[in-house]
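note to self — DONT lose this again. spent like an hour looking for the file last time. sequence + predicted structure for the chain T wanted, 222 res
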Amino acid sequence: MSRNDMATTVLMQIIAGEITPDEGTVIWGQTTSTNYMSRDLNAAFDNDELTIIDWLRQFATKEENDNTFLRGFLGKMLFSGEEIDKQIKVLSGGEKVRCLLSKMMLQHANVLLMDDPTNHLDLESITALNDAMESFPGSILFTSHDHEFIQTIADHLIEVGPNGFVSRADTTYDDFWPTRRPKNKWPPCTNNKLTPRNATFPGGVLVSAIKGETLVLMFPVK
């Protein structure tokens, strides 16, 4: 948990191998395959003259490199008809997120790294993504401002204390948060009556979470 979005983004970049940490190392297991979705959507689109289908084709295997297959695949991400022939340069933020989610699905990684994946998405798309992440069989490390997203997906918490001490608590976010917040500042949700989506946590904090061996990295709010 951090008041600064940049702090969690840098953490994600280090874990994804995008930047080198000042100290320490990040080591993945031998059977681990990762896929990273950056907060900076444009970083994944280096040729904005490509159409959606041709951009996705870059990540398809030889067996998947078929227009019928790719059209059907994009249809699952709500791209239909002539939409798949749109050039990347005219896409909205939400359409770019859906493209990146299509890429992640094609690449079959067992660990997903997602920096604020609900940003730019409408409610229908957020709900569909929420459901897909809940059923994902691997692990997910993500950041989000969305209370329901965090509460329903993350199920393992890791608190990084001010002296670097890490304590683990196998619980949900709403069970954990009341022990770390001022009274009456953020009521826990009960009976699945969650707070509205996109609600901001106290102090504008951002939560980094992992699903699978599933954890949430929470940096203390001062």
